[in-house]
């Protein structure tokens, strides 16, 4: 009788960092429906924790069945996050498996369980779903590469897969500070001096990104839209100076009017943050999370406590930027 195949289950963990758009210029929609962007991304200390665990021995070399057996979501911002194959992190694992097989040949690969601990608001304009997806790309590449005698896809190829999965995924993979053009997936690293302190105020209900872009098109068609603000020089210079005051004067978001039009309550939140001592407040990405740049982390903590008391159904946290992208820990 032959001994059963033994396997040694292994677990890897990554931090998936959120982003804020310091400048978000949105041009007219393109033929593919996406809008051409000129954006400056900066990653933030706030992050989700993504864990990938092997849950079975390697199988299925010639099968296209999903390598993901289960996905569990917990943490302070778990509500509303899909725990099935519609989650971008799930899709990232399968994309890595199929690309490895395409590149290095079919192999038996283990099935895996994914665990997401959400510290980033869901559907909040901070790229939480994209960040989890970026972390899952790195984790799957690390796990499955063992079955290819450590051949990994490498950074360039992971960036290509990231762009297939979503416009914000390449930046959340890379982290730091970068200019994003195209639909946001073409990245050029930028210099950023010092560290910036932010207060973020999240909302009880998320906003749909496509709905916010569509609202901007509608406002513009009615002659009420802003921008397009495609010149990122001011924010670039402010980042070189390292001065929060200067960066506060350069923050811009073409999607803000659309987000506020869909969620008029955000006006109050923006006002309350500034009254509480922030240098400047903007909607983060497509919203509804509001981002308040502050002189230091102490003031940011005051802004969080004052605004969350004043505006019902809000929560908040302090974060600093720049930070890393998706990193194995
Ligand atoms: O790329 P991603 O799947 O994250 O984009 C979600 C949606 O946001 C798109 O389907 C599109 O409606 C909108 N979008 C856009 N222009 C961009 C990025 C996103 O219109 N540059």
From TrEMBL:
Active site residues according to the UniProt entry: 19, 168
Pfam families, A to Z: GHMP_kinases_C, GHMP_kinases_N
Protein residues bound to ATP: 121-131
Enzyme nomenclature, EC number: 2.7.1.148
Domain GHMP kinase N-terminal: 87-176
GO process annotations (BP): isopentenyl diphosphate biosynthetic process, methylerythritol 4-phosphate pathway; terpenoid biosynthetic process
Key words, A-Z: ATP-binding, Isoprene biosynthesis, Kinase, Nucleotide-binding, Transferase
Entry-linked SUPFAM superfamilies: GHMP Kinase, C-terminal domain, Ribosomal protein S5 domain 2-like
The reaction(s) this protein catalyses: 4-CDP-2-C-methyl-D-erythritol + ATP = 4-CDP-2-C-methyl-D-erythritol 2-phosphate + ADP + H(+)
Domain GHMP kinase C-terminal: 246-307
Coiled-coil positions: none
The protein's enzyme class: transferase
Pathways per UniProt: Isoprenoid biosynthesis; isopentenyl diphosphate biosynthesis via DXP pathway; isopentenyl diphosphate from 1-deoxy-D-xylulose 5-phosphate: step 3/6
MF-aspect GO terms: 4-(cytidine 5'-diphospho)-2-C-methyl-D-erythritol kinase activity; ATP binding
Tagged with keyword ATP-binding: yes
Highest taxon above the source species: Bacteria
Keyword Transferase attributed: yes
Entry-linked NCBIfam families: ispE, PRK03188.1
Role, per record: Catalyzes the phosphorylation of the position 2 hydroxy group of 4-diphosphocytidyl-2C-methyl-D-erythritol.
The protein, known as: 4-diphosphocytidyl-2-C-methyl-D-erythritol kinase
Organism: Corynebacterium endometrii
Gene behind this protein: ispE
